[in-house]
């Protein structure tokens, strides 16, 4: 069998590092990020070749059932991070710093990020905010903590921003580029943009040496991220405009649960083959 025709083996893959993403940008290659909050999704996404896994503070909505991301705490995040990090053999594992765990000072941010890396075993952290967060990014980066900077719409600031609104329109696009460059200079190894007009996101991507990740930021970012419950069609209700459903997991689980309920109610399960004999 030729080398080109050889079957893909996940065991041959190396661990994705921050420099891996940088090298992919330099080669013009796109990469993927998905959220993950447990060992099973982490294992599956890792096997599929997803380069980066994000334990987002979106776990507040998608795991704990909060209305927003704001209530989730560092103590609630750490077990989820540890589960994902333990299951992912190849992907770069990034953990969100939740609201209130880093805004007070660079020292507070370092203490929180250190817990995510020591107790959660994350490889990097993500924090929200523009140029005003540069001193915090610099402090973390200089002390050995890789940082993804999150600009554009920042969910932790939804009340200050007046709700879920696109950021970086019109004259604000130039300011977005400058904020991204400031965060890059501070030491961020990657910049994530959320709900940003595609032309603005393209301008940021072209202006930066480090890679960009988009969610609702058009096709020109170096990487793309989605919440896994959105991409897999797990949740009900209205989906964000930028989310594409690649499966309908909700219907599969709903049909399976209904079939299980029916079989137990009718006595069809457990059958002889599911039981033990003396």
UniProtKB/TrEMBL annotation:
It catalyses: (6R)-5,10-methylene-5,6,7,8-tetrahydrofolate + 3-methyl-2-oxobutanoate + H2O = 2-dehydropantoate + (6S)-5,6,7,8-tetrahydrofolate. Pfam families: Pantoate_transf. It comes from the Bacteria. Transmembrane segments: none annotated. Keywords: Cytoplasm, Magnesium, Metal-binding, Pantothenate biosynthesis, Transferase. It is an enzyme of class 2 (transferase). The keyword Cytoplasm applies. Its EC number is 2.1.2.11. It is found in: Cytoplasm. CDD domains: KPHMT-like (cd06557). Its main location: cytoplasm. The active site is at residue 194. Binds 1 Mg(2+) ion per subunit. Pathway: Cofactor biosynthesis; (R)-pantothenate biosynthesis; (R)-pantoate from 3-methyl-2-oxobutanoate: step 1/2. Its cofactor is Mg(2+). GO terms for molecular function: 3-methyl-2-oxobutanoate hydroxymethyltransferase activity. Mg(2+) binds at residues 57, 96, 128. Catalyzes the reversible reaction in which hydroxymethyl group from 5,10-methylenetetrahydrofolate is transferred onto alpha-ketoisovalerate to form ketopantoate. Homodecamer; pentamer of dimers. This is 3-methyl-2-oxobutanoate hydroxymethyltransferase. It comes from Dermacoccus abyssi.
């Amino acid at each position: 069998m030729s080398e080109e025709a050889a079957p893909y083996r996940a065991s041959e893959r190396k661990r994705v590092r921050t420099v891996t993403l940088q090298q992919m940008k330099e080669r013009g290659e796109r990469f993927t990020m998905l959220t993950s909050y447990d060992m099973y999704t982490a294992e599956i996404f890792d096997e599929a070749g997803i380069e980066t896994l994000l334990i987002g503070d979106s776990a507040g909505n998608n795991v704990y059932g909060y209305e927003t991301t704001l209530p989730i705490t560092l103590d609630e995040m750490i077990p989820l991070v540890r589960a994902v990090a333990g299951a992912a053999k190849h992907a770069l594992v990034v953990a969100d710093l939740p609201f209130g765990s880093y805004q007070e000072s660079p020292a507070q941010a370092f203490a929180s990020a250190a817990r995510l890396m020591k107790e959660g075993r994350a490889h990097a952290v993500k924090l929200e905010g523009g140029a005003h967060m540069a001193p915090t990014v610099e402090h973390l980066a200089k002390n050995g903590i890789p940082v993804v900077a999150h600009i554009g719409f920042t969910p932790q600031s939804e009340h200050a921003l007046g709700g879920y609104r696109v950021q970086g329109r019109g004259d604000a696009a130039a300011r977005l580029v400058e904020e991204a460059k400031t965060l890059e200079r501070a030491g961020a190894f990657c910049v994530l943009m959320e709900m940003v007009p595609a032309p603005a996101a393209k301008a940021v991507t072209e202006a930066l040496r480090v890679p960009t990740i988009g969610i609702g930021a058009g096709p020109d970012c170096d990487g793309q991220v989605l919440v896994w419950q959105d991409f897999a069609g797990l949740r009900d209700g209205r989906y964000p405009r930028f989310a594409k459903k690649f499966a309908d997991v909700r219907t599969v689980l709903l049909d399976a649960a209904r079939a299980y309920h029916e079989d137990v109610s009718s006595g069809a399960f457990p059958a002889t083959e599911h039981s033990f004999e003396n």
